[in-house]
Write a structure and sequence with these properties.
This protein is of the alpha+beta class and about 650 residues long. The protein is about 20% helix and about 40% strand. The strands form 10 sheets. An 8-stranded mixed β-sheet has the order 5-4-9-2-1-11-14-13, with helices on one face. Strands 28-29-27-26-33-37-36-35 form an 8-stranded mixed β-sheet. A 5-stranded antiparallel β-sheet has the order 23-22-21-24-25. α6 crosses α8. About 35% of the residues are buried. InterPro entries: DUF3857 (IPR024618), Papain-like_cys_pep_sf (IPR038765), Transglutaminase-like (IPR002931). Pfam families: DUF3857, Transglut_core.
Length: about 650
């Protein structure tokens, strides 16, 4: 059977199933409504790969909204562009009994340019619509169809739309010519049904999820790709405009990227001359790398440009040099060329940035990258140096949590090679603070604070230094502390731009009424700043693993001078905890009219089984309570 006829048959079958299905909300099983804000009644996606440059994606789905918390699920939102043409889009609203109330066509929907707030220009548009119906429960049904003109990045299946959303039935069907095989990757395969069928010319895969009960949010849960089922598909051989490639291995994928980037690394002659003026007098390889990185940062700026194939192919070096801007791909390609001109081998790297990034599958080459960066291997025999080219202020070699601790694809001369970005250890993610304070009889406290932040704890202060005005920095400090009325003055921030960056901080603070005065007693919480906020509620039904996403050490030493006529009436007991999650120590003392607090907390980045959650609750809540322990001072008798 030819694919165009198979596609019509699949649509006809889905349409008949839709007509036969009641949208009366009473037909939803009670078990799926329990603890749910919305229920997916059906969700059918049919992907028909007709050839290497034509893919039809038809999507029909119905969602019943049970209460106001589920209203976001009823909004239609679809992106499209010249390479992904939106042929059709319709919507229908039904009441609780399944009676049709209103319908909407494509031309009636809102259509506007996509604004990601970082792009100079892009050709993506958004089609969206909301019925704004608020009589619960109600159901919306949306249908759309897209023609995709490439097979480089195929759609994936996400049957679970979010927390507190149940699924009655969701189906993902992919049809393709036998001569154009696809590959796939399944997450949480045990809860998905799978079927396949063949005929002489085509093959069809079908995945289905039925009767899935909504799951609530759990603190410190793994990301969505670890929790939920997904199906990713990829064309073994693909086409992107006039470029063809193979995704049967990461190495071959890298060869395709080399072809895509070919002849885009030629620097203008004037830039070549500047490179040698910068590096020829420098004695070490690392000095040259840092100098050229700083040259790139000072003479370019990041602007995203996504037009057609430009979403994957970088603008050439001449464009960047002449216009002094580029997106992540263009700036990374330019940085590699600068280094190569200096005789330093560097590589273009594809990666998934941000916290909730796509997973990297070693056994499933795919095109789900959202960022490009640069890798310079083995600097002076030390660790590989990473260069984030979209940030004009970041020190060479530092990647922050934007791209830390994840696999990426380094594009070498011979193809793609899997590499891993830096992991910041407990010894690197350090925060230490010294506080010298004085308390008066009214309970007012004046303190001088000196702190040092290394690696990731320095990120927020790096941003303050490089992007905030002095007035905005003052505003930041005025709202940063959970304290009574206070005033911050003499703020000083100094940054050491190194592979492991450091920010030194100092400021003065006056806190009126910090200690409570009752008769002849002063009640004070001597741990002023580092107070653990993450208290957890017990959950005996916890199902997800626990993810602690950062290594860090916080160390505080606090001295508070009190009026000489006061002595200690009540002093908190020291607490020392050593657990699989980390450690915590706090001790209080009083000598020579001075309170002393020594506090240290260590957190270990790791993933732990759900059955340890009770211990974590006790650990975190003990820390939270200990951090606000109170001591009592009493005025001596005359």
């Amino acid at each position: 059977m030819e694919l165009k006829y198979l596609w019509i048959l699949l649509i006809f079958t889905t349409y008949n199933a839709l007509k036969a299905q009641s949208l009366n909300c009473n037909d939803i099983p009670d078990s799926l409504k329990e603890d749910a804000d919305a229920v997916v009644r059906f969700d059918n996606t049919v992907v028909t790969i007709q050839n290497l440059n034509k893919v039809i994606i038809r999507h029909e789905y119905a969602i019943t909204v049970l209460n106001e918390n589920g209203n976001d699920y009823a909004e239609y939102y679809k992106s499209y562009d010249p390479m992904n043409v939106l042929n059709e889009a319709t919507g229908v609203l039904y009441d609780a009994a399944g009676k049709k109330l209103r319908s909407v066509k494509k031309k009636e929907m809102t259509d506007e340019p996509y604004n990601d707030y970082i792009s100079l220009t892009n050709d993506t548009r958004i089609k969206s619509f909301n019925f704004y119906y608020r009589t619960y429960p109600y159901t919306v049904v949306y249908t759309d169809e897209i023609t995709q003109t490439n097979t480089f990045q195929l759609p994936y299946w996400k049957p679970i739309l979010g927390t507190n959303c149940s699924v009655m039935q969701s189906r993902f069907q992919v049809a393709y010519p036998n001569s154009k095989p696809i590959q796939y990757k399944i997450l949480k395969a045990s809860i998905i049904q799978f079927d396949s069928s063949d005929n002489s010319n085509t093959k069809t895969y079908t995945w289905q999820l039925s009767g899935y009960k909504s799951s609530p949010y759990e603190p410190l849960q793994p990301n969505r790709f670890e929790r939920n089922p997904y199906v990713f598909i990829g064309a073994t051989h693909f086409q992107l405009q006039n470029y063809k490639g193979s995704m049967d291995s990461w190495n071959n994928y890298g060869k395709f990227i080399n072809e895509l980037n070919s002849n885009r690394n030629q620097l203008p002659e004037v830039i070549q001359q500047q490179v040698h003026q910068i590096v020829d007098s420098l004695s070490t390889r690392q000095q040259k790398i840092i100098a050229l990185y700083q040259f790139m940062q000072k003479n370019t700026r990041y602007i995203n440009i996504t037009l057609g194939i430009g979403g994957w192919q970088p603008y050439d070096c001449a464009y960047v040099a002449n216009n002094k801007y580029g997106d992540c791909k263009a700036l990374s390609n330019y940085m590699v060329a600068l280094l190569n001109e200096a005789g330093i081998k560097a590589y273009y790297v594809l990666i998934n940035a941000t916290d909730n990034h796509f997973p990297f599958f070693h056994d499933f080459p795919n095109a789900y990258f959202n960022h490009a960066t640069v890798c310079v291997p083995n600097v002076n025999g030390a660790d590989t140096l990473w260069l984030e080219c979209t940030d004009a202020t970041m020190p060479a070699g530092y990647v922050s949590d934007f791209t830390d601790d994840r696999d990426a694809l380094m594009i070498t001369d011979t193809g793609g090679v899997i590499v891993h970005t830096p992991i910041y250890s407990i010894n690197q993610n350090q925060e230490s603070r010294m506080v010298q304070a004085t308390l008066n009889e009214k309970g007012d406290l004046i303190a001088q604070v000196h702190a040092r932040y290394e690696a990731q704890p320095s990120d927020a202060f790096h941003e303050l230094l490089n992007f905030y005005t002095p007035e905005k920095i003052q505003e930041y400090y005025n709202r940063s502390f959970s304290l009574p009325t206070y005033t911050v003055s003499h703020i000083q921030l100094k940054e050491e731009k190194k592979v492991i960056p450091v920010v030194n901080e100092s400021f003065d603070i006056q806190i009126n009424g910090y200690a409570s005065v009752t008769g002849k007693r002063l009640f004070i919480k001597p741990n002023i700043f580092d107070r653990w906020q993450q208290k957890l509620e017990p959950d005996e039904n916890r199902t997800n693993n626990i993810v602690i996403n950062k290594n860090f050490v916080q160390s505080d030493t606090i001295y508070i001078a009190v009026p000489s006529e006061y002595e200690v009436e009540s002093l908190p007991q020291p607490i020392q905890l050593n657990t699989q999650f980390g450690s915590y120590n706090i001790a209080f003392s009083f000598n020579h009219h001075t309170i002393q607090v020594i506090r240290k907390q260590v957190s270990i980045k790791q993933e732990l089984p759900a059955n340890t959650y009770g211990d974590l609750v006790n650990y975190y809540n003990t820390i939270s309570n200990a951090d606000v322990n109170q001591m009592v001072l009493v005025k001596k008798a005359n």
